From TrEMBL:
<comment type="similarity">
    <text>Belongs to the bacterial solute-binding protein 3 family.</text>
</comment>
<feature type="domain" description="Solute-binding protein family 3/N-terminal">
    <location>
        <begin position="14"/>
        <end position="237"/>
    </location>
</feature>
<dbReference type="Pfam" id="PF00497">
    <property type="entry name" value="SBP_bac_3"/>
</dbReference>
<keyword id="KW-0732">Signal</keyword>
<protein>
    <submittedName>
        <fullName>Transporter substrate-binding domain-containing protein</fullName>
    </submittedName>
</protein>
<dbReference type="InterPro" id="IPR001638">
    <property type="entry name" value="Solute-binding_3/MltF_N"/>
</dbReference>
Amino acid sequence: MLLAGLSLTAQGQPLRIVSEAWPPYIYEENGQLRGQDYEAAAIVLQRMGVEAHWQLMPWKRCLAAFGQGRVDGIFDVFQTGARQATMLFPDEPLSEIEFVLFHNTARPHHYRRLSDLDGLKVGVSAGYWYANREFRESARFRREPAPNHAANFGKLMRNRVDLVINDHRAGHFLLDQMKLSEAIGHSPRVVSRDRLYLGLRRDAGLEAFAERFAEELRRFKAEPAYAALLARYAPLHGTHATPVEVRSP
């Protein structure tokens, strides 16, 4: 299996990985990639002896690059039935996330059930897939995509959308960076939960690599260094969402 990992760079070609910037999971700061998932994966790949070339781009471009075979992996992607046909997923996820709805504290729209969204405009991320099917397919509200997460919160502040859906940890981390933690809050009820993975090309012969990546990631997660990594990227003002799934009336 070690040889399988090394074979990825045997021809002098690094593993090509794309992702969208989504702090605190992966983002760029002062020309350097950072983030809890990125740094965990970088440590795992280093232990495996695998070189990687990383590139950040909008999520739709990530999906297009992967679909066209121009990259080997797509980072922090959700595992869905449709994607399993072309993507190979290591058994161990990089992170577990919870999507919640953020609101402007000056004009809050508290979310308890799907009917609370009637007639509202919700800022979503272009190309994102949301695990809650009722939310994903409901005609009760309008969806307005934004080019990035910061743009979504900017639209919320300018009253161009009523709510924004984002992972609660990522949302509050970004709000801390934007100095909007007092101006924007979130409803505590969870819209959906999901897991983030490293998705690999299924036709690239990476099965052994995926298996070893999962093993090394599980090993790293059991170490004190991983707990320190999570603590370093914890949002300053964010709170955990209430672990209750939203039901339609």
